[in-house]
Amino acid sequence: MGKPNLIQCISLPIPTVPCTMSITVTTNMPKVEVHENMKLAQAPSCQVPETALSGSAVELRCQDELSAPLAVYSWFKDNKLLSSAQLPGAGYSLDPKTGTLKFKSVSATDAGQYRCEASSGTGAPKSCAAQHLKIIE
Questions:
Q1: Whether residue 111 has pLDDT greater than 60
Q2: Residues in domain Ig-like (predicted)?
Q3: Which range of residues forms the domain containing residue 114?
């Protein structure tokens, strides 16, 4: 009699990623096929309004639902990193845990291309496509 075959199951801490797997056991080597139903390297979703009235409060949002562990978010304006520190006179606040960038009162200088980057510490950071925010005077 031969040795019993050992089949070990593993799981990733990403319960929202469906996939199917089939295992064919032969006398020599098992054959494993994994079929993913979606990409794991999906970009985060970003919500940037197209326009905002000067003086109005504006909120930009970023979310990476597939991030495990939870992502830390950064925002870029015209490809320059915005500081998450609460700088006096910055005119905005950024929460790196929720991905929210808030402006109390936007002005013409806040117009530009905004994008968010999500980093979970595993793999390369992921970015959404830059979106333009236009300020109407």
A1: yes
A2: 30-129
A3: 45-136
